[in-house]
Amino acid sequence: MTHTAQGTIPANTLMGDVLPSPQSSPLESATHLFVSLSDLVQESIFYHPEIGQHLDSLSEADKSSLKAIVGEQSIDDHFVSTLVSRIESSILPQHKQVRVCLSDADSYAYTALIGGAIEKPEVNPVIGVRGVSRFASVEHTHSFELECQVIKQLRDKGIDIEIVVPFVRALSDAAMIIDRLAVQGLPRGLGGLKVLYCCDAPSSVLLADKLLQYFDGLVVNTGNLTQLTLGVDIHNQALEALFNPEHEAVLMLLSQAAKAAVHANKPCVVYCQNLAHYPKMQETLADLESVQVLAGM
């Protein structure tokens, strides 16, 4: 995010910071913080969250790399304490809301980590096992538990963390994740805990009125929404010209999601990378009511 980007959108829009971010310093006017656990894992952890369950199958090179990172700590303790420290140190007094998004990375991103061979190959990871489908799978139960531990430790420190659930594709996903969070000691509503969900796919926008009965707000991830609305993989260079967050269909879905949130009297957060380069997106945001914006670089 940049001050330039901030100046291109309505003055009454509530701007927020993103963690991690290439910005050297947070926005002076940021009122909320959005934390991506997936990005933090890639930036600060470097190894696959499930690596501790597969030590016997690791190569010698991976074992050596893991040892160099973890040191004398257990893998789980290192994973949780590192993320807790990164998040806690990034929270400023001006951040009225701190939202932590559970991992939304796909299997392709996970394979780049130390121990990435754990991942089962997928023909099309973009529309593969990610978000709720990952949290609910037997293979990734442990990493979900670790992410929940991060949130619980932050809340135990008195930080009012809100949870953001990515890739909620259906109403059954909503019921499932609320139950699984409760099993992990994070029941929605207890101690004021709020749980939001990400609009990554068109279905999560089209069902917003019903999904918001399970959640306390929504986050529109314009990057994922653009990919899945247009059927364009952002990592496929041959299709790069077709990736367009300002496509009419994407802007229509964004507006629909925001209006559903207003109707439910719940917050709508819009995350758009490179917002300063998208004037039509800025115009759409100007027409929307009570939108919180994350404008990543």
Using brief descriptors, characterize the structure shown.
297 residues; alpha/beta; TIM Barrel; 8-stranded parallel beta barrel; 13 helices; globular; ATP-binding
Biggest sheet descriptor? 8 strands, parallel, barrel
Gyration radius (Cα, Å) is 19 Å
For the record, give the distance between the C-alpha atoms at the N and C termini, rounded to a whole number: 5 Å
The parts where pLDDT drops under 50 for at least 5 residues are 1-7
**CATH level 4 superfamily:** Phosphoenolpyruvate-binding domains
CATH structural architecture:
Alpha-Beta Barrel
Largest sheet, order of strands side by side? 1-2-3-4-5-6-7-8
Helix content: 40-55%
Helix-strand pattern: HEEHHHEHHHEHEHHEHHEHE
What's the total number of strands? Answer: 8
Query: Structural class, from helix and strand content?
Result: alpha/beta
**Count the helices. How many?**
13
- Count of discrete structural domains: 1
Supply the CATH class: Alpha Beta
**Overall 3D geometry?**
globular
Structure description:
Helix 13 links the parallel strand 7 and strand 8 (291-294). The chain starts with a helix and ends with a strand. It has an eight-stranded parallel β-barrel with strand order 1-2-3-4-5-6-7-8, surrounded by four helices. It is 41% helix and 13% strand. It is α/β, with parallel strands linked by helices. Mean pLDDT is 92; it is low at 1-7. It has one domain: Phosphoenolpyruvate-binding domains (TIM Barrel, Alpha-Beta Barrel). InterPro entries: PEP_synth (IPR006319), PEP_util_C (IPR000121), Pyrv/PenolPyrv_kinase-like_dom (IPR015813), Pyrv_kinase-like_dom_sf (IPR040442). Residues 1-23 are annotated as: Disordered. This is PEP-binding protein. Belongs to the PEP-utilizing enzyme family. Keywords: ATP-binding, Metal-binding, Nucleotide-binding.
